[in-house]
Amino acid sequence: MKHKLWFAIFLYFLPLHFSPAQTLDEIIRKAIDARGGIDKIKSVQSERVTGKVSFSQGLEGALVLELERPHKLYSEITVEGQKVLRVYDGKSAGWTVNPFMENKDVLEMSADELKEMPDESDLDGPLVDYKSKGSQVELVGKEDAQGKAAYRLKIAGKSGEVRSYLIDGSTFLTAKWEGIRKVVDQSLPWECTLSDYREVQGLKFPFKIEQGSPGTEYNQTLTIEKIEINPKIDELHFAKPPAAQGSAAPAGPAISKPYAQQVLVEERKSSWIAAVVETAAHSTSAKSIPIDFLLLSSPPVLSLNLLIVRRAIEICEVLPVATIVCDDLCGRAPPPSFS
User: Fold this and answer.
1) For residues 278 and 274, what is the distance between their CA atoms, to the nearest angstrom?
2) pLDDT of 9-25, one tens digit each?
3) SS3 for 270?
4) How do the domains of the chain map onto residue ranges?
5) Which residue, 14, 53, 159, 219, is most buried by CB atoms nearer than 10 A?
6) Is the pLDDT of residue 207 over 90?
């Protein structure tokens, strides 16, 4: 009798959210339902996302992201009137444009970039029809994520990319994904946290997305202002962008030798922010800083180091010419993942 009484008291004090272990299929089904259900998800033929992107350097840009079935993508980030473009036609061709590079022409995406585009431009997310997409999903287990229970799913995509997704054990919305991202010649751990979920026409979307490499300066925050479902999108957005009208860069200040050096900005390991900002801030005379070259590292998400370097050069009045050599200024940030 005492044993029965003790057991009844034990059950009484169990957490109210206690539930039997979830299977992988159940978690996937609940995650899809949490977003609005399979029917609503598949009814979305196009999507437009507008918002702001904040970078670790204190710079901000305006974002426009357009997606359309099947796998078409148009990404535009505007910083100080300059547009960085990333375009995929949904089939086999993609292009990038970056006015912050020395080569401002329309560039074709590499084979590696094209390989990743079907996943980046997927309106449905990685869990919907994952088997037919050639992906493999594994339930790693249940863990604590910032004080909340979460299911960790390991997803290996057809492209070979492997990510871990943390699914909130209460809402079944994606709270975070973790993976590896190649930045120039380095493979860095990458994290993307999704929060501030809101409902738009019966579907749930995160309106705040933070991503970057832990312990580095490589990070950005996307604050979404508006999401449009099934907007009419100009099909020219998914075609090769027109070539920009060339314009010569304004000449720098006329400075006599030996201060008319050339700056070589190269993607390498260096705490460039501190060096450039401190140099600019403490410069009292243009001719007191004979800089031959700077070795700078830049953010992989949207490399705006050139903009900062130009500002430093203008303040210091050291150099009339800046030659920029960068490997990855077009950015590797994928479109926001809403799944």
Assistant:
1) 6
2) 333 434 434 345 689 99
3) coil
4) 20-238, 262-325
5) 53
6) yes
